[in-house]
Design a protein that fits this description.
With about 400 residues, this protein is an alpha/beta fold. It is built from ten helices and 22 strands. Strands 6, 7, 8, 15, 16, 17, 18, 19 and 20 form a nine-stranded mixed β-sheet that branches. Strands 10-3-2-14-22-21 form a six-stranded mixed β-sheet, covered by helices on one side. It has a four-stranded mixed β-sheet with strand order 1-13-12-11, with no helix packed on it. The structure holds flavin-adenine dinucleotide.
């Protein structure tokens, strides 16, 4: 059967659903989202949900900052369900050799308008009394940051998009994008053919394979990342803010009354999205538990609650690709968000829908995310490598 629509979004993670909502709310008629499995079944459903703005490049900082406003008032701005934003504050801790880097980052972030500042050792101690801190370290504090629910956000976007006339089709992998005369003609699944002038590929870790089938070769790599939760003894560690710890190469945040989520974005194990191990491994738990115990004394007495692994989709400069495909009218790519995608999804959805409908992103300059940067050798460079922080 053939269905005719103005746009097809492929992939029902937080990116695809944000794009779908932003297209339909800007007047695109009856757009369709195709998801191979269920909403949030890719990286989104395994995301740690951190919402903070500390980045070393302006494009990432801006995407996170523009998104932050939406997370804080999702029900008011997008409508529908809230996304459970929880404010915890976020402390970035770096070792002595990164002091210049963190200073440059904070200066750039403040020029963007982000609510952040460098704090002294004494101030950091007051903000995070549970932490063991060293006077040689440097600290940046984001008072308003926290975390949210990634799957809940994808669901909220898709429900609002459906209210406005979009269709979400689950368990329907896109098999092929038909391209005729240099233009997108249709997106095909096993049961349907969706005739459309616009196709957006937001397929997360599956992007390299899917794009490769269409002759688009981008340096995208799926890598496996573990996180786990500890149930703290509240007499030893009553509470703590979220944080990124570059000294011990970990990130963490509280969850509910007594859990702590901990992860590390630096383990870059290449993985096959069809056959990776989604379970926790004791080697990782032991190593990372030891590291967080250096930062939060007393957490070694916790109970291991649960753990799992998910996939990042990474590019060589750890920045995503958000772009149109030159030479194929109507084809757009939105992928490669490594550990940043959840907190950037609201702004990415706006910027990409502007690119599609108005020919350029108005919210912010997304040229640093163009797909040709790899071939041009013009990668994004950072003042200090903060990839450890999800
Ligand atoms: C362990 C972990 C912790 C993280 N922590 C954070 C964090 O704290 N903060 C943060 O901002 N980010 C974090 N991230 C990153 C963030 O989760 C991702 O960047 C984001 O979810 C990417 O969203 P996406 O929509 O691009 O991809 P995905 O969520 O993977 O969605 C892609 C979707 O496409 C579908 N699909 C694939 N192929 C097809 C096809 N052919 N047809 C139809 N559908 C298809 C998949 O089933 C999937 O649902 C974390 C990620 C992991 C794994």
């Amino acid at each position: 059967m053939t269905v005719t629509t103005e746009a097809v979004v492929i992939g029902g993670g937080v990116m695809g659903t944000s794009i779908l909502y932003n297209l339909v709310s800007r007047g695109v008629q009856a757009p369709v989202l195709l998801e191979r499995d269920t909403l949030g079944s890719g990286s989104t459903g395994r995301s740690s949900g951190a919402i903070r703005m500390h980045y070393s490049t302006e494009v990432n900082a801006r995407l996170a900052w523009e998104s932050f406003h939406i997370f804080k008032d999702f029900a008011g701005i997008v409508g529908g369900d809230p996304v459970e934003f929880v404010k915890t504050g976020y402390l970035i801790i770096v070792p002595e050799d990164a002091v210049d880097g963190i200073k440059k980052n904070v200066t750039m972030q403040k020029s963007v308008g982000i609510d952040t500042d460098l704090v002294t050792y004494k101030e950091a101690k007051e903000l995070a009394p549970a932490f063991h801190l060293d006077e040689s370290e440097a600290f940046a504090w984001e008072p308003e940051s926290g975390h949210g629910d990634p799957s809940g956000t994808a669901l909220a976007y898709s429900m609002r998009a459906r209210d406005l006339g979009a269709t979400v089709v689950l368990e329907s992998p896109a098999q092929e994008i038909e391209i005729e005369g240099g233009k997108v003609k249709a997106v095909v699944t096993s049961g349907e053919r969706y005739e459309t002038p616009i196709a957006v590929v937001a397929t997360g870790p599956w992007s390299s394979t899917f794009l490769g089938k269409h002759g688009i070769d981008l340096p995208l790599k799926a890598t496996r990342h573990e996180v786990f939760f500890l149930r703290r003894r509240l007499d030893l560690v009553p509470s703590h803010p979220g944080g990124g710890d570059m000294t011990n190469l970990i990130y963490f945040r509280p969850e509910g009354a007594d859990l702590t989520l901990v992860g590390n974005g630096n383990h870059e194990d290449p993985a096959d999205p069809e056959a990776y191990n989604p379970r926790s491994t004791m080697g990782f738990v032991e190593e990372i538990w030891e590291r967080i115990a250096r930062r939060i004394p007393g957490i070694e007495e916790s109970e291991l609650f649960t753990g799992y692994a998910g996939l990042y989709t990474s590019t060589p400069d750890l920045h995503p690709v958000v772009d149109k495909v030159d030479g194929i009218e109507g084809l757009y790519i939105c992928t490669g968000f490594s550990g940043h995608g959840f907190k950037e999804a609201p702004a990415v959805g706006i910027a990409l829908s502007e690119l599609i409908l108005e020919g350029e992103a108005k919210l912010l300059d997304i040229t640093p995310l163009r797909m040709t940067r790899f071939a041009e050798g013009d990668l994004n460079t950072t003042t200090y490598d903060f990839k450890v922080i999800a």
